[in-house]
């Protein structure tokens, strides 16, 4: 089976490639990238092959969301592997890594196998399970890392809860390193964040709301950096939100410590000013920070301190959000808005398109140690096609996600994924029919 993507702007950070070219896909793999392949391949296309006109479109390695919550098993009323996969595909992602805080949590082979099996049956995107660091996410004893890896887990995290026990975290880093599994750290000192509802600062003071100080995040980032340095292991810091966190990670990298980091779109598009109306859709953990923190996160993305952008897609039911602010659950969905929000960084001059795709595809693949995020010849043809000129208005009622807790509803967006391909197969198609010959 042949598919020829013709006339698009091909951006692949893994090859430092950025030019108008054709991409030939044969039997689910990248065959060649070059100019004029349409004329060269004319008459040689398989009877079932197709040519797709992508003039004025951008062709990139399939986007990878390395931090999402699919809620399955146990919370299927919020999201399922199938609905989350559909949302991911429509958002331009060909792969997602799903966190372990399900019910039962993913701390054993059986749950990992369940997620892998459901994703395979669904067949929309690659779903990479993230196993728990501790049994039951209780932070008391290590889970069975080896069994989960053999079942398909690609990383380890107690995301949603921090590992407060420093000795346990040290053992986790050492054990995971021996298995070549990355550890994704949820950095929060719960003694410092206890009772807080939003960022501690000017806005929380004016609103009379108990705050979560930036040092609740920064203290644990500092600890995990020290542990990684002491054990000479790698640690990945999730959902970076503060200026101090960016500085700690920047300094650690300068010292040669094996630390990588991610942030989410809401930490560079929103601030705690959004909470003045007490809208629970803006309640997340870590919380939306100050405008100064937002600027620091952008600077961290620009200078490479922050390696990746992940959605931290956290679906909740209406009944869990339509409550008083104190009682509403934290989290927002993001799979279907992440790309468009991140493209704003290009418009603002924070990142080039090449850098952005690196942070949403090539770098997540490298951090997770999975063989994707590239369009080199013979690579698996996971491809995302982006229409940079597409303007659209967010309408959560049209989202594929089962939950609708999105603070960006009715926002005007620019730029959108219009096609995703996994192993050369079209999984989502928003192109007009005339584009496919």
Strand count, sense and barrel status of the largest sheet are:
8 strands, mixed
Number of helices: 14
CATH superfamily of the largest domain: Metal-dependent hydrolases
Topology, number of strands: 18
Report the mean per-residue pLDDT as an integer: 96
Q: Please give the share of residues in helix.
A: 25-40%
- What is the global morphology? globular
For the termini, the CA-CA separation is: 15 Å
Which runs of at least 5 residues are low in confidence (pLDDT < 50)? Answer: none
Helix/strand-derived class? alpha/beta
Number of domains: 2
The first-level CATH class name of the largest domain: Alpha Beta
Percent of residues in β-strands: 15-25%
Provide an overview of this structure:
It is a single chain. This protein has 437 residues and is of the alpha/beta class. It folds into 2 domains: 2-59 and 380-435, Urease, subunit C, domain 1 (Roll); 62-368, TIM Barrel (Alpha-Beta Barrel). Helices cover 31% and strands 22% of the residues. The chain has helices at 37-41, 81-90, 109-122, 145-151, 166-178, 190-193, 202-207, 214-231, 243-254, 266-269, 291-302, 318-321, 338-347, 353-368; strands at 2-12, 17-26, 29-34, 50-53, 58-61, 63-68, 93-98, 126-131, 155-156, 184-185, 198-199, 211-212, 235-237, 259-263, 308-309, 383-393, 412-422, 425-429. Strands 1, 2, 3, 4, 5, 16, 17 and 18 form an 8-stranded mixed beta sheet that branches. A hairpin with a 4-residue loop joins β1 (2-12) and β2 (17-26). α3 packs parallel to α4.
């Amino acid at each position: 089976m042949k598919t020829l993507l013709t006339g698009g702007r091909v951006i692949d950070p893994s090859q430092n490639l950025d030019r108008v070219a054709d991409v030939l896909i044969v039997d689910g793999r990248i065959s060649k990238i070059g100019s004029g392949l349409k004329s060269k391949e004319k008459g040689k296309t398989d009877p079932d092959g197709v040519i797709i006109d992508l003039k004025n479109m951008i062709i990139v390695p399939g986007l990878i969301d390395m931090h999402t919550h699919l809620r399955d098993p146990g919370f299927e009323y919020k999201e399922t592997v199938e609905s989350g996969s559909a949302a991911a595909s429509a958002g331009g992602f060909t792969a997602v890594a799903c966190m372990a805080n399900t019910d039962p949590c993913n701390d054993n082979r059986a749950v990992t196998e369940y997620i892998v099996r459901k994703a395979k049956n669904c067949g929309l995107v690659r779903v990479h399970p993230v196993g728990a660091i501790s049994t039951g996410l209780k932070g008391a004893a290590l889970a069975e890392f080896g069994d989960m890896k053999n079942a398909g887990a690609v990383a380890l995290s107690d995301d949603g809860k921090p590992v407060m026990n420093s000795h346990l975290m040290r053992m986790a880093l050492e054990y995971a390193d021996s298995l070549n599994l990355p550890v994704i750290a949820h950095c929060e000192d719960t003694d410092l964040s206890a009772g807080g509802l939003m960022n501690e600062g000017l806005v929380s003071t004016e609103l009379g709301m108990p705050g979560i100080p930036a040092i609740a995040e920064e203290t644990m980032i500092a600890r995990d950096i020290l542990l990684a340095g002491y054990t000479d292991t790698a640690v990945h810091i999730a959902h970076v939100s503060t200026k101090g966190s960016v500085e700690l990670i920047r300094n650690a990298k300068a010292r040669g410590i094996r630390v990588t980091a991610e942030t989410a779109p809401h930490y560079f598009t929103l601030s705690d000013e959004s909470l003045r109306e007490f809208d629970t859709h803006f309640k997340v953990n870590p919380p939306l920070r100050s405008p100064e923190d937002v600027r620091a996160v952008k600077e961290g993305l620009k200078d490479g301190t922050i390696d990746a952008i992940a959605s931290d897609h956290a679906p909740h039911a209406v009944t869990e959000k339509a409550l008083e602010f104190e009682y509403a659950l934290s989290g927002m969905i993001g799979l279907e808005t992440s790309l468009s929000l991140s493209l704003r960084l290009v418009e603002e001059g924070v990142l080039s398109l090449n850098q952005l795709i690196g942070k949403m595809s090539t770098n997540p693949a490298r951090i997770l140690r999975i063989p994707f995020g590239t369009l080199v010849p013979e690579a698996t043809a996971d491809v995302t096609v982006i229409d940079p000129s597409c303007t659209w208005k967010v309408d959560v009622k049209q989202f594929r996600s089962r939950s609708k807790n999105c603070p960006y509803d009715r926002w005007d967006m620019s730029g959108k994924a219009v096609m995703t391909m996994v192993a050369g197969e079209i999984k989502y198609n928003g192109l007009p029919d005339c584009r496919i010959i």
